[in-house]
Amino acid sequence: MSVTESPMYPYSPGLEGVPAGISRISDIDSDRSSLQYRGYDVHDLARHGCYEETAYLLLFEKLPTQKELSSFKELLGKEREVPEGVYQALSALPKTAHPMDSIRTGFSVLAAFDPDYTSPSTDHEANLRKAVRIIAKAGTMVANGHRIRQGKSPKKPDPNLSIAGSFLHLMSDDPVDSYTELVMDASLTLYAEHGFNASTFANRVTVSTLSDLYSGIVSGISTLRGPLHGGANEEAIKMILQIGEPSNAEAWIRDALATKKKIMGFGHREYKHGDSRAFYMSEVAKEIGRRKGITKYGEIADTLERVMKEEKNIFPNVDFPTGYAYYLLGIPVDLYTPIFVTSRVAGYCAHAIEQLSNNRLIRPKAIYEGHKNLKYIPVQDR
Ligand SMILES: CC(C)(COP(=O)(O)OP(=O)(O)OC[C@H]1O[C@@H](n2cnc3c(N)ncnc32)[C@H](O)[C@@H]1OP(=O)(O)O)[C@@H](O)C(=O)NCCC(=O)NCCS
Question: What does the pLDDT look like over 300-349, one tens digit per residue?
């Protein structure tokens, strides 16, 4: 941690290493490169569970029984449809709008359609109902927003599919194979929650003013959009595509480092020995490559990872393998960060509910370094 001493306060730029609140939702152990959601290792959840189980765990603070999971999935299925008014708003956007702007707009409009719209922001039960609707509809808005942008009409979601399956079904007219659904589901589980990252923190700041859950989601999405955060999965695959062939990779990365380029999909504020989520996602991404007979992206990734470790001791984060995994699944690149939203809304909702259950307005202090006590001169005399 770099802490600068100011005359009055110790200060850490970017709030690096500064505790900003108490949470019981997820734990990042940087030394062990481990991430746990409410005490459960994310690898166990991604490998053996499903995204709905993780969403339930984040919201209701325990793993569901089989019966609870079935009812939760049924409820999510019933809540999956999106009001026509949201589609009308998305249709009014220019076709050039980035899908992140579309999903952010979608949530802004959706807020007013929620049956609990007028409930006080501290109503815990209403917040849980809103959270279920938000989680259920996010993938529908991303996929149908994409259809609208292509000049197609929105497709009716199938309530009997999983969240991952429903998203893929809305995206494609072809049947979805089970491994594709498994990859999407694993990525949603791994993206669901990650402590006080920038967008979750923005979401908590918003609801700490007693604003509502949807406003928190909109703040979160706005913050996730940047390439230093969620946007990195799109930038990572663009970089791999630019490299093109495994034989170009070593020279490309060495040149990029020599010219001080940031390598997207590498590095993390919290993990200095590797992002735990990247380990499983890399395994899955390579497996899709093998199944599709396209192993070159995995080979490029191996070279970049080796040189980054040798030269900078920096490791890939989850966005790196997820970028080429989604590409191999045939998903348009500008939907990668919106898919991240589809998953992360579960974490945002859990954090908003936690914040509101024991709220204190988040209002830090600035260290003022500007002028003081200047004499005001009327404009005609300046
Ligand atoms: C995520 C990130 C912002 C974390 O940054 P941070 O904790 O603030 O670390 P810093 O940016 O201070 O980097 C520390 C050092 O590592 C280097 N570094 C960090 N990430 C790097 C990367 N992706 N490529 C090249 N160098 C990197 C920095 O240049 C810096 O080197 P220096 O000390 O010689 O100046 C940063 O690693 C990054 O920009 N990564 C690329 C974007 C990305 O993948 N984001 C998704 C995060 S999940």
Answer: 999 999 999 999 999 999 999 999 999 999 999 999 999 999 999 999 99
Contact 267 CB / ligand 1 (< 6 Å): yes
Q: Rounded CA gap, 121 and 335, in Å?
A: 31
Question: Quick check: 290 pLDDT over 50?
Answer: yes
Q: Scanning the structure block, which residue is given the tokens 């734990």?
A: 27
Q: What is the mean pLDDT of residues 292-298?
A: 96
In the set 43, 146, 319, 351, the catalytic residue is 319
Whether the CB of 266 sits within 6 Å of ligand 1? yes
Residue 153 tokens, joined: 């009409």
Scanning the structure block, which residue is given the tokens 């990252």? 197
Instruction: Indicate the top mutation candidate among 235, 269, 315, 320 to test ligand 1's pocket, ranked by most ligand atoms within 8 A of CB.
Output: 269
Average pLDDT score, the chain:
95
Cα separation of 268 and 106, whole Å?
30
Vertex 280: Cα angle to 278 and 282 (nearest 5): 65
List, as one string, the DSSP characters of 237-304.
HHHHHHH-SHHHHHHHHHHHHHTT---TTB--SS-SS--HHHHHHHHHHHHHHHHHT--HHHHHHHHH
63: helix, strand or coil: coil
pLDDT at 192 over 70: yes
Secondary structure element (H or E) that encloses residue 27, with its range: strand 26-29
From the list 81, 79, 189, 101, the residue with the least C-alpha distance to 146 is 101
Specify the residue with its C-alpha closest to ligand 1, atom 12.
269
pLDDT at 5 over 80: no
For 244, the token pair is 């093109």
Residue 37: helix, strand or coil by DSSP? strand
DSSP summary character for residue 315: -
Is the separation of the CB atoms in 74 and 312 below 8 Å? no
The answer to whether the CB of 189 falls within 8 A of the CB of 36 is no
- Nearest-Å Rg of the Cα atoms of the chain is 22
Angle at 234 between CA 2 and CA 19, to 5 degrees: 30
